[in-house]
Amino acid sequence: MKRYLMWISIPFFFFVSCAPTPNPNAQIQVAVAQTVAAIPTYTPYPTPRIAPTATPMNLSGLFCEYQFCIGHPANLAFYDVIAKQNSNSSAASSASQGWLAFYNLSAVIEVMWQDASGASDATFMLNTIIDSKIDSRSGELKAFQINSLNVDFVPITTTATSSLPYGGAAAWTCGGRAFAWKVYTPQAELAMSLLNEALQKFRCNNQ
Asked: What DSSP assignment string belongs to 73-119?
């Protein structure tokens, strides 16, 4: 029996002696990986969400470009008259000088502006926007205030179109620029209403 056990134990000792020696580097890598995995992770701070701010005025019927904003009937849209007249060149309106217009069957509106640093009176712009070939002043020049703007207004008649024979023209200054506005309408009383709508929403870069 002892001899039998001896023969059985010989292969066991032989197998143990021949087993590969553990690689210490591999053992270290496993230990490091286990340690790193055991380190608690921190929950990232939530990204702050910026709440949207309310728009100070209704964007419907509002034109904003060239460092100013102005109201207009919601069913119309301005186009750049200078760019349209010079379609084959790079000429267009800019913050320092420009001319916009829009029209449909119920109204034609134009807006002009130019640099006028130091000027407090913009009545000279009325002579620019009122076309003496087709427009005529039909009443006295009136001065009044809309919001913070000192506005000069004069009613006009026009032969530009038989369906819109009435209208008005206005001028004011803001932020070192002089502005002029003109409208053709089917009824004379509509001019002041449209001007008030435009200037209630008017803002320039220095306001």
From this structure: -TT---EEHHHHHTTTSS----SSEEEEEEE-SS-EEEEEEEE-TT-
Could you report the per-residue pLDDT of 123-159, keeping only the tens digit for each?
Answer: 999 999 999 999 999 999 999 999 999 999 999 999 9
How many residues appear in the chain? 207
Give strand ranges (E) for 104-165. Answer: 108-115, 135-137, 142-146, 149-158
Domains of the chain: 62-204 (3.40.1000)
Q: Each residue of 54-76: b (16+ CB within 10 Å) or e?
A: eeeeeeebbbeebebbbbbbeeb
Sign, Cα dihedral of 205, 181, 148, 120: positive
134-172: buried (b, 16+ CB within 10 Å) or exposed (e) per residue? Answer: ebeeeeeeeeeebeebebbbbbbbbebeeebbbbbbbbb
Beta-carbon contacts of residue 45 (< 8 Å; ≥ 6 apart): none
- What percentage of the chain's residues is helix, strand, coil (to nearest 5)? 25, 30, 45
- Residue type, position 105, single letter: L
Average pLDDT rounded to a whole number, residues 73-81: 88
Burial code (b: 16+ CB inside 10 Å, e: under 16) for 105-120 equals eebbbbbbbbebeeee
